Task: structure prediction
Amino acid sequence: MTLTVKEFIKDFKVQFQSMYAYSYEEGSTEQLYNALGMYVKNYLSGNWKETREKYVKNSVKQVFYFSMEFLPGRQLESNAYNLGLLDTIREGLQEMGLSFDELEEAEADPALGNGGLGRLASCFMDSLASLGIPGNGNGIRYQYGLFRQKFVDGYQVELPENWLRHRNIWETRNDKSTCMVRFGGNVWLEENHLGFMEAKYENTLNVLAVPYDTPMVGYRNDIVNNLRLWSAEIPIDEEENYHTLEATEPIKEITQVLYPDDSNYEGRLLRLKQEYFMVSAGVQSILRHFRKYNLPRKNIPDKVAIHINDTHPALVIPEMMRILLDEEHLTWEQAWEITFKTCSYTNHTILREALEKWPIDMMKDLLPRIYMIIEEINRRFVETTMPIYGERITWQTAILQNGVVNMAHLAVIGSHSVNGVAKLHTEILMNDVLKDFFELYPERFNNKTNGITQRRWVHLSNPGLTQLIDKKIGEEWKTNPSELKVFKSFEKDKKTLQKLADIKLENKQRLADYIEEVKGVKVDPKAIFDVQIKRLHAYKRQHLNLLHILHRYLEIKENPTADYVPRVFIFGAKAAPSYIYAKQIIKVINSLANLVNNDPDVGDKLKIVFFENYGVSLAEKIIPAADVSEQISLASMEASGTSNMKLMANGALTLATLDGANIEIKDFVGQENMFIFGLSSNEVYDLKAAGDYNARGIYESNEKLRRTLDALTDGTIPGLQDEGYAIFDSLVNYNDEYFVLKDFDSYIEAQRKVDELYKDQKEWTRKSLINIASSAPFSADYTIKRYADDIWKAKQCSEQSTGVEPLDGPIA
Ligand code: 73E
Result:
């Protein structure tokens, strides 16, 4: 059934009138957006219901992806696109004198995640639905998303992100499926009249978990999966106990705000409450189904896979045990077998400061029954491991260590699968971070390199490129990404290359206009657009990028008439509010931008643009216009990265260290089609082991570098307080934790090669084409297929879904 433009116009008018009781001509942009969103939601509701019913009726295995973060981005365009309605809607609106793009801007971009981890979860939701795999998301409906970033005087300021201020038309509150989550109080075990041990509770804080469901629309396959986000409320029958607004605070605060830390951990009580709240509500709602249909509990692992996205939801393991023991009265052995076979865990980082370790006292107070169960899991683990592996390994792998609950250890012990997110990262887990566990359970470890959805990150964000590919190789690549490799056969076709260059220039012009609009900076679209977009973190080394720009600036000042290839350095990055060093880097880049962008000696040779409030919507504008993708983390530190994949798929050339998924990008695209520099991860390990790294020595012996570093503190950059000193200090006086100085020379050399190659536009565009044509392996559809086949044992249940042929190549 295809919708005609005429039908759309008629239905949309009815929709608008039914919501606002006047004619659409009088509607505000926001009202028109709401009506359009509602129209799309109504359109898909039949499939949403049928998908749900089909899964139950056919009793298929369902995946539940538990994540504290989801970063879906705006949903109107992507839902309309996946449903096959987008062109019709665009045309219809145009006939009505309305603009789709304008209405779309009225949609809030839900920032319910920090960065890569949350965005990955949303790419996975898109791929699950598009592959027709029964998959559900389970998370938190934060009332405030990640802070809105503003720059005041070049400093980051955080403002609350009240994304629900306007109604969220995509969600459906589901009062029928609420559950109760208990915190604190006293708990003891008592034998009941049937002779079962039962857990008794008193003085608990009871919190009502209310689910809000959001449709996850598959690509043209009639599948609509579900994302369930939980909100904390006062239980209805306890309302009389909450007389004042203040009294309600401990409950409401649970789902009020997302913790703004990426790759970091702070043992805050509220965060532990959030984790347990989400986990308990999610597990209860899954197991309720088995009770309702009286299904054999031992079949749970055949019907359910629960995925633990980093350790944040690792309490799934004791919570599932709690329900199976206390409410289903299974034996420990039965409950453990079910739990272990159901759960799987992904590790996303090796950064020590990101590994969750909860103080035992905190856990005991807040979750007394859960703590008892963790203690018992630990006791049994120690009991079985000790006689076989001895003391050292046993104590190093125990869950309870030195007064804390080690969540990664809980996750590994309670899961049948443990995976990293890129080949190198998985190797580091096996050889270093989780080495002892790899010895205990080698069969559990596997790699699943991250991926991205081409639908959002190419088809929708880069329509020009998408049309060109369609024209050259047909549309099959859209459902079978491996077809993209056919595009490579055009690498020597002059016309195609010219067209590709034209499209890039158009995208750059569009971004240049936007830069002028929001930053008031005029940039030349013919300059190299050099992009680093990711959270601000010392290990990601935005300050290495900064040093190179500063070095370039000094060169221009010294020799303004030399022949420079014009470059625009583009940044997007939020710093965690408490991460002072990261905020100092932002300030220095902003101050340098202010200097450089207004220096008449510099002109178009060099510009710096630091966007405020980087997020999914901004990424969609920047990525199609990028020439260079900066992936410059210290080797071994970035688990995978995903902006590297998005930028490559849009034809940017990668400038990278051999870290995370950059290595696999190199394997597919070829070293000659990117710019590699810096220490390898083995060299980093050796350098750390040798313990003789001498940053000051490098500073003193490297003239070029010294001049650049000195410019941080000698007044070259106006407007700084002590931020330049702080960076200088960390690098020179505190021995440069992330080996920025060590990699400086080879980074400068790689940047020189970028300039050199850009002078040969044809060759640059040829390499760009090869990048695009080699990007298929990083489709999240492949990643999800591997998760489904190897870990979840979940089947595709729709023949129309994206067909993913097995890919040859190095991704395991
Ligand atoms: O390398 C990225 C990776 O691509 C990694 O840093 C990121 O996850 C991405 C997706 O796999 C990540 N985020 C976090 N840990 N790793 C994290 C940790 C604590 C809170 C929020 C996010």
Observations:
- Residues 114, 116-117, 120, 261-263, 310, 348-349, 354, 421, 450, 638-642, 660 surround 73E (CB under 6 Å).
- The two ends are 40 Å apart (CA to CA).
